[in-house]
Each structure stands twice: as C-alpha cells, then as structure tokens.
Amino acid sequence: MNTTRKNGSLSTNIAQKIATVEFGHPASNSFPSELLDRLTKELHALSKNEAVAVIVLKSEGEGAFCAGASFEELIAVRNLEEGARFFAGFANVINAMRTCTKLIIGRVHGKAVGGGIGLAAACDYVLATEKAAIKLSELTIGIGPFVIAPAVERKMGLSGFSELALNATAWKSAYWAKEKGLFAGVFESVTELDTEVALLSEKLASYHPGALIEMKKILWKGTAHWETLLDERAAISGQLVLSMFTKNALAKFKK
Questions:
Q1: CB neighbours (10 Å) of residue 158?
Q2: Would the N or C end of the chain have less CB density within 10 A of its end CB?
Q3: Hey, where are the domains in the chain?
Q4: Residues paired with residue 195 on neighbouring β-strands, in sequence order
Q5: What residues does 21 pair with on adjacent strands?
Q6: pLDDT tens digit string along 183-214?
Q7: Is 192 exposed, middle or buried (CB count within 10 Å of its CB: 0-12, 13-18, 19+)?
C-alpha cells in the first residue's frame, strides 16, 4: 500500500546486517525535493553504520518503482537558482549512492521513468520483475536526462543510454534493460524477486566487510569527478526548464 503523505515517506529497517530502505509517494513513487534530501542523508548515515553490510533499496506498493522527480515541483520552478536546486536533488542522491561504503541492491518491482532509472543505475546490483519497463522521456518536454546520464551510461553503455534518451516516447522492456546491463536478473513475479533479493543480500552480508568496502571502491573507480559533473548537469537542466518550449510542454502535460 502506498503512502498518502504529500512529501512522501522513507523508512529503514536493519536486520542481520541488511538495511532495507523503502521510499514511497502517492504520485507513482516520485520524488519531491524533501524526499530526495532525506534519502541522501539516510544513505550517508548508513555508509557510516558499522551494523550494516548491505543496503536494499526498494519502493512501496505494486505500481511504479519510481516516476522520477516531482512533476508539481518541476512546473513550479521560477528562476535559475530554483532550477539548479531542483535538479541537484537527484545529483545528490546519485553521489550519495556512489560514495556510500555499502553495496546497494536495487529491488525494482515496476516501471521506472527518468530519475527512477538513474536510481536503478546507481545501485551496484539490480534485480527486477518483468513489469519493470523503463523510459527516458525528458526530451519530450524540452530538457534531457543530463544529471542521471553518467550513471545510466556507466551501466548500459553509450548506445543503450542514447537509444533510451533519443527514443523518448518508447517504453523498453525489463528484458531489454537486462540485455543492456541495467538489470542483473528479471523475474516473473514479485514473490520470486523478493526471494532472490533476500538470498543475494544475505550472502553478501555474510562476506568479509573489508572485502565488500574494497569491492565498492573498485566498482566506482574513476567517478570522483561526478561531485562537480552532476551539479554542472543540474544547472543545464535548471536553465532549460525555464524555456518557453518546456513551459508550454509542461502546461499541455498537466492538462
């Protein structure tokens, strides 16, 4: 059951060295800025928590995994400063996932759009159901998936990312996402998905903590510059969202 809270919900349960972080929002598990900030802070805290070996990132309900950033906040952006700050929300979360000392397993039970794909791409290992179709629709409203691009390209390659980003109205299947490297496994049901997530997280949590930390460093080698790169990308999106093209597109979308 999804939360009804306007600013969404975030909860963490820690058991047997596994921290399960669950987010939710009534609008298809989208992210308002406040929820992005809370997730960023939670990831930083878990990174330092010695009682945690592995993190499982999941969302509420049975519908979408994540519809990206808050549409209501997007249409409310009034100036460059607000625009850059809005798009920096996902930049901060991706950088928190990147620098987190714990391996992050993504549990993707449904569709992912925009920033939702960025979240999945920033996980270290992702398992999904066959309902987990993906789409990058940013170009259709005059902006682009600039902030999440480094994370998506790192997982799927330039060809996979460009196919998603340029064919902005097309849904790609979970099996396509697996073929391109975004998902490590695709299952027919949520029950099967949860079984596999539990098995993997339990195995990882039983391994040498120091080995897991060093493995995380290796997986993210060469990404230190993302600290500034993603902020620069957020500024680009923040400028584009103020264009008349985007304002008109958002007005049509809202209707």
A1: 10
A2: C
A3: 9-209+223-254
A4: none
A5: 12, 57
A6: 999 999 999 999 999 999 999 999 999 999 99
A7: middle
Asked if pLDDT for residue 251 goes beyond 90, the answer is no
Spatial contact of 81 and 20, defined as CB atoms under 8 Å apart: no
Query: What is the C-alpha separation between 10 and 216, in angstroms, rounded?
Result: 24
CA distance 5 to 38: 14
Strands 54-59 and 103-108, by their bridges, are parallel
As a whole number of angstroms, the distance between CA 240 and CA 169 comes to 19
Condensed to tens digits (0 to 9), the pLDDT of residues 123-148 reads: 999 999 999 999 999 999 999 999 99
For 60-97, b/e burial (b = at least 16 CB within 10 A) is bbeebbbbbbbbebbeebeeeebbbebbbbbbbbbbbb
Whether the CA torsion 236, 241, 243, 246 is positive or negative: it is positive
How far is it, in rounded angstroms, from Cα 126 to Cα 74? Answer: 28
DSSP state of 62: S
Architecture, CATH, for domain 9-209+223-254: Alpha-Beta Complex (3.90)
1 pLDDT above the threshold of 70: no
Give me the residues paired with residue 55 across strands. 19, 104
Per-residue tokens: 251: 């007005």
Model's pTM, two decimal places? 0.95
Q: Hey, what amino acid is at 51?
A: A
Q: 9 to each of 21, 35, 113, 253, how far by Cα in Å?
A: 11, 7, 19, 26
Q: What angle do CA 25, 104, 56 make, to 5 degrees?
A: 50
